[in-house]
Design brief:
Layout lengths: L3 H91 L2 E11 L3 H6 L2 E11 L27 H34 L9
Antiparallel strand pairs: 1-2
Length: 199
């Protein structure tokens, strides 16, 4: 059976334990409430981001499904025209002239024909430069890639500050209880009337 001083010690120990349990429950409930606030705020932030991103996502879908394929097709057509033109130029560089045949009437070398006014026709070959073709194709302009909107980072500083405040409050309260307990123990050692409570 416990003596009266031992009973008091147990009561004090239970009281200090229940105080710490109460403090930890308070801390847990404040952290739970803070977590709920954080999740609500973050959900709102995500909804705002999704709303901001909707026009950009629509523009990006149009860019990928319509604008980019059209540009790629135009680019391929332009490249084929350019390749054909370069092939014509390469052929022109190898063979820059066209051989032609012409005829011309000249005074006849036969005196009888010349007397009557008849002329001789002679044929000759001459070279004419090939015409240089002009390239009329225009390079297609690439469509502008949609720019994503600027999204600010989620500001969690107020929640961090509240959590830090709750932690420091808990530590301070536990520290105060420890200090009070240590103070009570040291008073027993310095005051002889309380020293009997230790036994």
């Amino acid at each position: 059976m416990a003596t009266l001083p031992q009973f008091k010690q147990r009561q004090i120990a239970r009281r200090s334990t229940s105080d710490i349990e109460r403090l930890s429950k308070q801390y847990k409930s404040s952290i739970d409430a803070l977590t709920g606030e954080y999740q609500t705020a973050f959900t709102g932030y995500q909804a705002g981001v999704a709303q901001k991103m909707q026009p950009f996502e629509a523009q990006m879908a149009q860019y990928k499904e319509s604008l980019l394929p059209t540009y790629e097709a135009q680019k391929a057509t332009y490249q084929k025209s350019l390749d054909d033109y370069n092939a014509v130029l390469a052929d022109l560089e190898k063979n820059p002239v066209i051989a032609r045949t012409g005829t011309q009437e000249v005074k006849s070398s036969n005196p009888l024909k010349a007397l009557v006014g008849k002329k001789d026709t002679i044929s000759f070959e001459y070279f004419e430069p090939k015409p240089i073709p002009k390239f009329t194709g225009t390079a297609p302009v690439a469509p502008e890639v949609p720019t994503a909107p600027t999204i600010e980072e989620f500001d969690s500083s107020q929640f961090v500050a509240k959590k830090t405040e709750a932690e420091s409050t808990l530590k301070r309260e536990i520290g105060e209880r420890r200090a009070a307990k240590l103070g009570a123990v040291s008073r027993k050692a310095t005051r002889p009337m309380l020293s009997g409570a230790q036994s």
